[in-house]
């Protein structure tokens, strides 16, 4: 007999509570409403060489009917290494259909990292580009690495062929409410865009503002839906805040927004914020997307979900009678 929605939801709650208890500070809630979580996993050495962040999104049907949506994040994890690890996780899921599997996934990843640490594999070589270099835990709760280019405006040149260099109309630019924490201030800016050229124009216009131009980081992401190809043109920029652009783009993908550019400016106040800085970046972005009707607020989403559940229940009753 299939589990009810309530039973499935309770299984999720129980699993999340257990994992939070087991992994402590290595467990990170990215977005409670969207059921997005990160678990930092290392090779158990006193000074870990190998670390992976497992990010998971728990869909409503997990664990009884749907698998978790997951991403493996580490600067060194590419190609064959990624595929082998991903295949191992898929195999665990298939062998445990309908069961809670996150603990099994975490320990499988740890097993692989321990094997690497005990082998002759050279230690991964990468460095952080954020000014918060003293934070050991901040940059591990990140999405896939995004290339950091010197000039955040120049990076758009490669997607704008010479023949299309027409002077398109500058879209309206909106500014969100700033968030301040321990002397650091975050503020989001938003503009509707339908071409990469418009993205470039908006960025140029924002950089004409001396205050925005002087920000420690101007992180941005955009998504443009191409009707003819039925695909998305999207990109992002960290501007020195390692992988924050990728995280912002991922938020926009989850919220399923399109034809919009979001820029988040951060003015660093001299006090390290650790992982909280990523929370503020995403909160700023989410708030301005809600304010300009690109996405429902949490309250509206809850009402919509409630209405959907009521409709489903009413339909079920009619079917039963």
TrEMBL record:
UniProt superkingdom: Eukaryota
Keyword Repressor among UniProt keywords: yes
RWD domain mapped to chain residues: 14-116
GO cellular component: cytoplasm
Alphabetical list of SUPFAM superfamilies matching this protein: Ribosomal protein S5 domain 2-like (SSF54211), UBC-like (SSF54495)
Cellular localisation: Cytoplasm
Keywords: Cytoplasm, Repressor, Stress response, Translation regulation
Region of interest (Disordered), ranges: 300-321
Biased composition (Basic residues): 306-321
Biological processes, Gene Ontology terms: GCN2-mediated signaling; regulation of translational initiation
Gene3D superfamilies: Impact, N-terminal domain, Ubiquitin Conjugating Enzyme
Subunit structure: Interacts with GCN1; prevents the interaction of GCN1 with EIF2AK4/GCN2 and inhibits EIF2AK4/GCN2 kinase activity. Interaction with RPL39; this interaction occurs in a GCN1-independent manner. Associates with ribosomes; this interaction occurs in a GCN1-independent manner. Associates with actin; this interaction occurs in a GCN1-independent manner.
PANTHER family: IMPACT-RELATED, PROTEIN IMPACT
UniProt-recorded name of the protein: Impact RWD domain protein, transcript variant X1
The species this protein was found in: Columba livia (Rock dove)
Gene that this polypeptide is encoded by: IMPACT
């Amino acid at each position: 007999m299939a589990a009810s929605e309530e039973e499935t939801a309770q299984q999720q709650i129980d699993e999340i509570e257990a994992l939070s208890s087991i992994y402590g500070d290595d467990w990170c809630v990215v977005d409670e409403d969207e059921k997005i979580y990160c678990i930092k996993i290392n090779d158990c050495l006193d000074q870990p060489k190998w670390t992976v962040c497992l990010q998971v999104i728990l869909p409503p049907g997990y664990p009884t009917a749907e698998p978790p949506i997951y991403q493996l994040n580490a600067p060194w994890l590419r190609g064959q290494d990624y595929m082998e690890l991903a295949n191992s996780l898929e195999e665990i899921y298939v062998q445990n259909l309908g069961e809670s599997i996150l603990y099994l996934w975490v320990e499988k990843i740890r097993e692989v990292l321990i094997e690497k640490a005990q082998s002759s594999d050279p230690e991964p070589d990468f460095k952080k580009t954020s000014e918060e270099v003293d934070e050991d835990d901040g940059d591990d709760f990140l999405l896939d690495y995004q290339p950091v280019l010197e000039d955040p405006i120049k990076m758009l040149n490669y997607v704008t062929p010479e023949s299309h260099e027409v002077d398109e109309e500058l879209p309206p630019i909106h500014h969100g409410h700033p968030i301040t924490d321990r002397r650091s201030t975050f503020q989001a800016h938003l503009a509707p865009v339908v071409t990469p050229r418009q993205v470039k124009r908006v960025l140029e216009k924002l950089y004409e503002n001396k205050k925005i131009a002087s920000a420690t980081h101007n992180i941005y992401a955009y998504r443009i839906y191409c009707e003819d190809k039925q695909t998305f043109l999207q990109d992002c920029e960290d501007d020195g805040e390692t992988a924050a652009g990728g995280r912002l783009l991922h938020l926009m993908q989850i919220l399923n927004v399109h034809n919009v550019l979001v820029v988040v400016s951060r003015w660093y106040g001299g006090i390290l914020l650790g992982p909280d800085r990523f929370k503020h970046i995403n909160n700023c972005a989410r708030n301005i997307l809600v304010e300009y009707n690109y996405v429902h607020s949490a309250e509206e989403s809850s009402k919509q979900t409630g209405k959907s559940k009521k409709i489903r229940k009413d339909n079920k009753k009619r079917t039963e009678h």
